[in-house]
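Let's practice the habit of predicting before peeking. Look at the sequence and jot down your guess about where helices and strands might fall. Then scroll down.
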Amino acid sequence: MLYDKAFKYRIYPNKATQNRLGQWNSTLKCIWNVAHEQRKSGYSRSNLSKIYPCFHSQSKELTDLRKQYSWIKDVPRHALAQVLLNLDDAWNKCFKRIRGEPKWKKKSSSLGITEFDHTRFRINANKLKFPKLPPIPIVISRPLEGKPKSCTIKSDGDQWFASIVCEVDIQNPEPRTEPRIGIDRGIRNVIADSDGRLVENPKFLNIALKKLARAQRAVSRKVKGSNNREKAKNRVNRIHRTIRRQRAHFLHVESTRYTKSHGVVVLEKLKTKNMIQIGGGLSRNIGDSGWGMFSQFLEYKLKWSGGTLAEVNPAYTSQTCAVCNHVDRVSRCGDRFKCTKCGHVDHADTNGAKIVLARWSPACQPVEASSQGTRQRSRKFRSLNKEMM
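Done guessing? Here is the structure:
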């Protein structure tokens, strides 16, 4: 079976290349905002005169713009196409009420510069060859696998990275249904499983809050547009980057552990984004725990190894006894769970994980990522290549 696997490498472009990449990034943001405004103004008309711009109509207009303006033509055509495609997907999700209306791209935002023609980028002798750029030094931390499909260059603060997506042919793994485990995600214990294992939340963000606040205050004291302000902003970005990497490493380790040891992992079906939007310290702790990221890691790792990730209804899992199934909110008191009916005593998070596992059945639909969007993207790009050549 064919899977898309991404490989992310650190690259070291020189000053001239960084400036050109910065100019490309500004052009991509300009194209996004102009196309976004075109859609908003078209949708806001009266019912009789509404205009519904789509990906293909805007890509044809972009082809004409590339002929008129050299600063647009300087950007690789696939990078421009990717911006329009991302905007089209964002509006489609808005119409389906999956997400809200797309937002404008700010001056500080960084967009990826993508090349989809695998013949136009390659890695030779620790050098990345990218269209219209000189060879860029790259650190190959692990070898590529499969057939390269796309390459995206993007900045993360003062560092640059290249993400190469490869199509990897993985033999169909043997389906695994044993052993099974339920996991309850929390704040104090970010992971509590039905076997009694508790993983304390490292709270990387909370640990760095004081350091982050000092760096943010330093930014506010600097003059806007000055070099010192840019340096202060880079310090803030480095702190955030360190926190993200610490959290991702921690969740990768934990998700790999459960993928190797279990065939079925059951989670609560939580609407994490809605919980974060409530605001306050609880929302910050939920975001710092990385519940959604942990679920994503488990999803693709279990899929590659033949396992299954399932989600069940989270209602009253913290108030239900794992022995007699009696529901009473009084049974839970902090980290201790004592059933008011049968007297069963257990850690509250462990009891909740056992309830999560008990609600799973083979009839539950596994969590699977849809490949329909990828097929639609490939069809759009094949037609776009003919228009923009």
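How did you do? Residues 370-376, 384-389 have pLDDT under 50 and may be disordered.
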